[in-house]
Design brief:
Distance between the termini: 30 Å
CATH architecture of the largest domain: Sandwich
CATH class of the largest domain: Mainly Beta
Mean pLDDT: 89
CATH superfamily of the largest domain: Galactose-binding domain-like
Largest sheet: 8 strands, antiparallel
Number of domains: 3
Low-confidence stretches: 1-21
Number of helices: 0
CATH topology of the largest domain: Jelly Rolls
Number of strands: 32
Radius of gyration: 22 Å
Helix content: under 10%
């Protein structure tokens, strides 16, 4: 897969034919801290092999197959020493094919509360995602967990040894506390100080001016325009009344004869070529922003025709390129991938992506440029379910470009089957 930040800050993509839909790992969660033994539970994804899935297994390190079982599901406990493990759950079919799901965990020998999001002393956007797990020496286990947003203000509580929720908070600094209560009457806490930004926002961007469209086809995925070009057809139409939530959705279309080709739609919000009246000619505005939220609803009558849909946030200044790429692979395997700026490739997150056809799907993506200029993928929320990503990558190099942009991309399948997707209530928040 290829990306270019120089050509209108675009993100180029190439997808290989998919054989599997994604493995569903229900335990442990990606990025969690747990005690040993670690419980693993997973079910196999579908396969094009007519003979079906033969077996599943767990790798605790490259080449270290710690567990294997025949069939389409697994449930087991693994004894692991304290440390961080990049584990992989894999399935094998009867035709020689395989698929994997990556799960990173930290095994601890201590009891306590372990918060993966938000990071203490960080600035976040509202709603603020909280994700945490807890362990205890109580033989009866952890009973429940909760979040205090101020002394005595219990804003959220859930049963069990984990929580994952988003809290709507006004701008300001919060000395929050995540607490666990065990079934023996004990409790432990973890203090997390955060600053919630007031947040600047562009709303209903789907009906804004400034959108540009390009076709991209394998193997080079170089932009082409206007449509049709290189066997690709693409278009967009604003002001659609049905289907719509706001009364003015935008329809995006992809088709043509070139298999696995894409349509990229791009809008320059701040800086060079700004469509929002913020050109930042003195280069003093763009570098001040660190926290970004891409919030959008999308609708398709037959989403199975889409190889993937992609939602990207880009920031460029001082010869640095920060490209937060998030794609929901649909025909490509029902999993969220994120873009690694350094190795220039997509990285599976292990997070399932199963949007619904003939229904509005709500996606909220939160990312951050850290104080040390690293790209932090924070969380992805799809239809009310928030998954913490918590992965960090260095930036790339983008000489001469200053700006903040958003992309929406739709990818074609192995037949380049034509399909349309509608976007509505597209909101971009930055602070």
């Amino acid at each position: 897969m290829q990306k270019s930040a120089l050509r209108l800050a675009c993100i180029f993509a190439t997808l290989a034919p998919a054989v599997f839909a994604g493995i569903n790992v229900t335990a442990p969660g990606n990025g969690v801290t747990v005690q040993s033994p670690v419980h693993y539970a997973a079910s196999a994804g579908s396969t094009s092999c007519s003979k079906g899935v033969a077996s599943m297994g767990i790798y605790t390190a490259p080449g270290v197959l710690a567990y294997v079982v025949n069939g389409t599901s697994l449930s087991t406990d693994l004894t692991l020493s304290p440390g961080t493990y990049n584990t992989v759950v894999e399935q094998w079919d009867h035709c020689g094919g395989a698929a994997t799901a990556s799960i990173t965990i930290t095994v601890t020998g201590k009891a306590g509360v372990f918060v993966t999001a938000p990071v203490t002393n960080s600035t976040v956007s509202s709603p603020a995602n909280f994700s945490a797990t807890a362990t205890t020496t109580c033989s009866k286990g952890v009973g429940s967990m909760g979040i205090y947003t101020a002394p005595g203000v219990l804003a959220y509580v859930s049963n069990g040894a984990s929580l994952n929720t988003s809290l709507t908070l006004s701008a300001g600094t919060y000395n929050t506390v995540v607490e666990e209560w065990d079934n023996c009457g004990g409790a432990t806490t973890a203090p997390i100080t955060i600053t919630v930004g007031g947040g600047n926002a562009f709303s209903n961007l789907q009906k804004s001016g400034g959108w540009a469209g390009f076709g991209q086809g394998p193997p080079s995925f170089i932009d082409c325009s206007p449509s049709p070009c290189d066997g690709i057809t693409y278009s967009m139409a604003q002001g659609i009344k049905s289907p719509a939530l706001s009364g003015a959705s935008t329809q995006f279309n992809l088709g043509g004869t070139a298999d696995y080709s894409d349509a990229l739609f791009n809008n320059h919000l701040i800086g060079d070529l700004s469509s929002q009246g913020l050109p930042d000619q003195n280069h003093t505005l763009v570098p001040t922003f660190h926290n970004f939220t891409y919030d959008v609803y999308f609708y398709g009558t037959d989403l199975a025709l889409s190889q993937a849909v992609e939602f990207d946030i880009n920031q460029f200044y001082d010869n640095l390129g920060f490209i937060w790429g998030q794609e929901c692979r649909i025909a490509g395997g029902n999993e969220w991938d994120i873009w690694n700026n350094v190795s220039q490739k997509w990285v599976p997150t292990g997070i399932a992506c199963n949007p619904l056809s003939n229904s509005w799907n709500h996606v909220t993506i939160q990312v951050q440029r850290t104080s040390s200029n690293q790209l932090l993928y924070q969380s992805i929320t799809l239809n009310g379910v928030t998954n913490t990503v918590n992965q960090t990558y260095p930036p790339g190099s983008t000489p001469g470009w200053w700006g903040i942009t958003v992309n929406y991309q739709m990818d074609g399948n192995n037949k380049q089957s034509p399909y349309a997707i509608y976007l509505d209530n597209l909101k971009f928040t930055y602070n």
